[in-house]
Amino acid sequence: MILIASLLPQMSPAAVNDARVAAGYAIFLASYLVFAIGKFPGTKIDRAGAAIVGAVLMVALGVVTPHDALTAVDFSTIVLLFSMMVIVAYLHQAGFFDWITELVVTRLKPHHLLPTVIFTSGVLSAFFVNDIICLVMVPFVLDATRRMGVKPLPYLLAVATASNIGSVATITGNPQNMLIGSFSGIAYRDFLLHLGPIALVGLLLDWLLIHLLCARVGTRDPVTDLPDPVEAVDRSRLVKPGIVILMVITGFLAGLPPALVAAFGAAMMLITRTREPRLVYDEVDWGLLVFFVGLFVIVGGAEKAGVTERLLAFANSWNLHHPAAFTVVVAALSNVVSNVPAVMLLKSLVPGFANPHGGWLVLAMASTLAGNLTITGSVANIIVVERSKHVAPISFREYFAVGLPITVATLLFGFVWLWLTS
Fold first, then answer.
1. 19 in a domain, yes or no?
2. pTM given for the model
């Protein structure tokens, strides 16, 4: 790559352009290879690292200019994602999720735990970023199942699958929906009205299938030690976060710009006399933010190199404007390269559809629900597996046995619903 950069000034304009196009394709394909397999072969470069390296090479080799690189980054999406991370981190620090644990452990019976976990994870993920909800829900589930004396596997699977399903409902549910909300211009309420019913029915299907498939696993756990007493939560600390959250959700539903509303909520959370802001910053997923910035530049460079035109030709030849075909392609690609890179790659196709509004909704629905297929299908799944592996390890087979029927059932309903309503 360095050799190519040094030779560019000595080449003819046509040759320079061809070299830049070739470099754009090479960087794009290499980056998406890492997104697919998790690390660059023979190195320690992960997805975020690949996004950084790819973005730098796109600029260094002249595929995009520094100005074009900045223009390619959708800063409203970055602000929205960062602000939601800060809000949820503050809720965590304030004891909001500990309060939920207290309510569940002290008032629910074991047979009520599964629907409670599913709908709590789903509803919270609908309004907050699902990855962060998984981070705080896994310790809650492990603690609740230990205290109730039941095996944690069904409830951990419920956290992963329900957080993905619930997040499909709104623009703020997951990172790919934030991208789609920014690119499509679909209003928050419009998004919720079309995809909210899919999330609701999906959570009911999730409850039914996990209950049927994990009935034997969810029996009493032979734990002999007595549970620790539940530590009471100071509810006075929840007043301010509760007010701010209500204001933020009201702003979303009122049609105000989501990034501005979320940024306002994050700023209000950080105005405090007692809480150390550094503790909130420590819970922000900086790697994900860097990944987004790099991915914007990589895809911008790929578009400059002509990848978009080839995708449009592919879409026309494979009839991807049809909702059924588009659903299958989105679901498959989301499991190959992950949902955020898949959305970034396919976003240029949707404006050319006969019904772009419906195409954006299908893209959001399929890229999100497809994440339940395997452990590596979404970041939320990986978070659940990694955070619980020392207490309740989840194998690929155990997850897939539940993830496959849930993915098929929810995708089928989502496709039919959008086909009938959009």
1. no
2. 0.84
